[in-house]
Amino acid sequence: MKENKFCQSCGYPLKSDPKGGGSEKDGTVSKLYCSMCYENGEFLTPPEVDNAKKMQDFCIKAMKEDGMNGFLAWLFTRGIPKLSRWN
């Protein structure tokens, strides 16, 4: 399997993930998704976040709530449509 540098759902750098990535149903670390997006083999985002645009909006809102500048939040989410979950 290809080694990914970024979560293939939200674009978060996997090396920055405190848990090292999300988890599969068997407890192994996911090589595709971060721990904020994926746990026990399931996505953690609300069911209505079902496409790249909605994921971008969801991530921007969360980053702004954490105190990030809106422009930077937008900049960090620009690549979401290119990630494997959304293709």
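(the above was protein one; protein two follows)
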Amino acid sequence: MSLKKSRILGFGSPILDLLLRVDDAFLARNVEGEKGGMRMLDAFSQRRLISAVSEVNVRKAIGGSAFNTISALTSLGFSTAFLGKLGNDADGTYFRETYAKMGGDASRFRISPTEPTATCLSMVTPDSERTMRTNLGASATLSPEDISDADFKGITHFHAEGYMCFLMKTLKKALKLAKKHHCTVSFDLASFEVVRLFRADLEEIFSAGCVDIVFANEDEARELCGPESFSPDRAAEKLAPFCTVVAVKLGKNGAFVTDRTVSCRIAPKSVQAVDTTGAGDLWQAGFLFGYLSGHGIEKAGKMGSLLGAEIVQVFGAEIPSGRWRGILSEFNNIKEQ
């Protein structure tokens, strides 16, 4: 598969990110629960939080786990489309138009006539940690009936986020159609809670041969293996019989990648982090760019490391448009092993 011949379909919850810089005192005064992580919130409570500061300080960015990966692949030159559900509102229009301006195919978005576009208030403290409060809105209403064979016409690779496990029937139909249309499939486990809640379904999906590439971070891999026996290679070993490629992302410690025949440790690229939003999603984009362009897993992993390091140096999950040419140049300088 090459850059020109590939056409990638992303699948997940399209979420409008509302990015806000705050201090720990703001969280203590206004946000219930512990700092860090993500909780669901209704639209009214989300607006109340925003009203606690000046709204001009809130920056909008189109996002969502799978969408962040697809967005980066679009900027890197791949032909992409996205399958997810937006609201029939100004936020949904903004999302579609922004993606289309990037060069993405926005025709596969579904529109809810009643629910608002999903939003995630991402509050970033000076230590670069994010505390997220999300209203899933329209994205949570995507049904199996919303998906058809037509969505996979011309698609060569399908990338899905694990959060779609909460819409399991919809996810399983999408994976079935992807394989029916001979797509390769990558799947991001998304969070350790997803692994814990849907272990049986995930094991069924993997055993059925629905997934070719699995992405897991350290917490997800530990949940999969059990804390007593966890190691990156053991987690990969557990998934390797069912997938062509397994990548375990280890944050500041790099990553471990195997394709059944070769295993390698990918060194991290050390940078000063500003905001970790989207770091794992962009690592996946770098890896997929390399792997789907025909490179081996080590070079693809190094591309993932480079792109993951790039995104943590900016606020939010968007790399400035003027930076992509330089990133492609750095990709070209990575030597094949």
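Reviewer note on protein two: The first strand starts at residue 7 and ends at 11.
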